[in-house]
Amino acid sequence: MDPVRNPYAPGAGQRPPELAGRDKQIDAFDVVLERIARGRPERSVVLTGLRGVGKTVLLNQLRSAAISRSWGTGKIEARPDQDLRRPLSSALHMAVREIAVSHRDPERVEQFLGVLKSFALRATADKGMRERWQPGIDAPAIKGRADSGDIEIDLVELLLDASSLARDVGVGIAIFIDEMQDLGAADVSAICGACHELSQDAAPLIVVGAGLPHLPAVLSASKSYSERLFSYHRIDRLEREAADQALIAPAEREDVEFTESALDALYEAADGYPYFVQAYGKATWDVAASSPITAEDVRVGAPTAEEELAVGFFGSRYERATPAEREYMRAMADLAGDDGPVATAKIAVELGRKPASLSPARDGLIKKGLIYSAERGSIGFTVPHFGRYLRGQAE
């Protein structure tokens, strides 16, 4: 088969040629957009799931849906070492620029940009870096609004002002936050507080977040009412029909078919995880001699896919761990079976250590995004099949 025509695209956040199995979430978001357009109150949205299930792809798709309705949008990727104020300023600046062209009162837009600039400048005002960084907002800073230095107060004021601007134009604003679990505690609390105020005001501004499975727990720990602030959607592996569609539809556009046994073998190998579907699909295409693609093609191509996953998907994450953290993960892998959550007490028994002595390794892995706290007293891998990979390394 011609590798140039290979339609499959495994990549971080890269949209697959066929976005299969996510119609439910896309349709639900369309309802949110339409309700807000009609002045109805709506909750912000949170997507959760393991790495490789397509959260970022879906987040980008939802952003495209908002853009198609002429909404202002901005997107950030949270990082553990960065406060929210600076990246949010840039994202909201982008969103307001998109709707400003439709606003009838340029002075009102400039006034908001002045408030936004003051909000942004607080990111470095207390760190002696004011002259080193400017937010790139072409308006004079306006004092006395969203610049108190308390992120929770400032964010409420800023987002209410932004929503008022959007309401004038008759559209909405959506701020998309990827890796939302990496926000600091103060920033999470500020977002929850702002979303609470926005929902009470029926404001045309929503936050759409995506993160690891423990993100709802992070939000709940910040504000007890967070479960009522957001509409939660768990993004999981694809059902068999959707996984087949993700393979068949792109191939059909290239006049290529799969045998049923090939689809069986591909689903068994990929286990329905969208990233794996693309990886095995790409490798199988490249080794297939002609259409239809067969189970033998899958068998021959699988080692190439597994090698690429071992290096780029699993290995790159494993290399970030310290020796103590790797020992902890290997114990998890031995106990996890099919990669399900593991009791931390069992890991301590497996390693012959006291639970408290393992806390630094566990906390380090959580901060690096390699494991997550599934529930009190248990942890799981953030990457599907990571336990299987580690067990394979030990053989």
From TrEMBL:
Entry keyword annotation includes Nucleotide-binding: yes
Domain named Cytochrome c: residues: 167-333
Ranges that cross the membrane: none
Cited InterPro entries: AAA_16, Cyt_c-like_dom, P-loop_NTPase
Region (Disordered): 1-21
Molecular function per GO: ATP binding; electron transfer activity; heme binding; metal ion binding
Matches recorded under Pfam families: AAA_16
Keyword line: ATP-binding, Heme, Iron, Metal-binding, Nucleotide-binding
UniProt-recorded name of the protein: ATP-binding protein
Protein source organism: Rhodococcus qingshengii
